[in-house]
Amino acid sequence: MSVLDGPREEWRRILYEGRPHWVKPAGAYLLLGDGRRVAEEEATYLPPCEPTKILCIHLNYESRRAEFRAPKPETPTYFQKPTTALNSHRGSLVRPQGTKYLNYEGEVAVIIGKPMRNVGRAEVWDYIAGFAPGNDVGCHDFRDTDAGSMLRVKGQDGFCPLGPGIVRGVDIREATLRTYINGKVVQEGMISEMIFPIDYILADLCRFITLLPGDVIMTGTPRNSRPMNVGDLVEVEVTGVGRLSNRVVEAPPPAHQVGHQPTDTDAVRRVALGSDWWEGGVPLGQGSP
């Protein structure tokens, strides 16, 4: 049965009595496999997968392309997040002191279910374990380094929260993505708005890269990615899939003054502020959002 076909099924992963457990949501409770139950509001969540890699697409929503007045890409381009970027539902998003452009990017995360290599678009859906709301968090104060790989922008610890769980039996192609800051909608886009659909992305990547069970593919964000403030509650909702929640906290700066330091340049601001920067009359120039 394809991941798109019903009935809807959701699994979550929590830490309970010092051990990870897979659980199923049941109203206000989460059901453990041995029959015990945990109050959902008291649960400590873990990411709903253990990937060997996290692969992300750059520009992939028409609204974001239009926001940046960028030409429509002929083929997708990708980057990676380290697996240490993985985070969970209700996990903290850490903004280091001395930075200010910590942006949300609400996305659909695709979790691979079985080894996938050289699979055509029509068969892609049979290889997917499920979907989860995700947040491709980026600290754009480091935009001026790493030659476009965005390693320090997008790869810091905890910069890839997923959850609450992994869901199948939902036709993700008909879903809507929304991001909220403190309860207010700040991003909204139909999944059908993607320039390169999910089946295209996976078929493209697995031509040369073996995707393994648990691997995560982040599929892009719509317009209006903007900086978050310390204390903000950021939530990413995918209709039919769930709502991911995280709180922004602050941590001390790195202990040692080594390497590239945070910067506040035109290149940084034009991506961190998007069309807000355009409306100020400053040309965007080059750079992949």
Characterization of the model:
- About 10% of the residues lie in helices and about 35% in strands.
- By secondary structure, it is mainly β.
- The chain has one domain (about 50-255, about 260-280): Fumarylacetoacetate hydrolase, domain 2 (Alpha-Beta Complex).
- The strands form five sheets. Strands 1, 2, 3, 4, 5 and 15 form a six-stranded antiparallel sheet that branches. Strands 7-6-18-11-12 form a five-stranded mixed sheet, covered by helices on one side.
- Strand 16 (about 175-180) and strand 17 (about 185-190) form a beta hairpin.
- It is globular and about 55 Å long.
- The two termini are about 35 Å apart.
Explain the layout of strands and helices.
Blueprint: E1 9-16, E2 19-26, E3 29-32, E4 37-39, E5 44-46, E6 54-57, H1 62-67, E7 78-81, E8 86-88, E9 92-96, E10 102-103, E11 106-112, E12 128-135, E13 138-139, H2 151-154, E14 160-162, E15 165-168, E16 176-181, E17 184-190, H3 198-205, E18 216-218, E19 233-238, E20 242-251, H4 266-272, H5 275-278
What would you say about this model in short?
By secondary structure, this protein is mostly beta strands. Helices cover 10% and strands 35% of the residues.
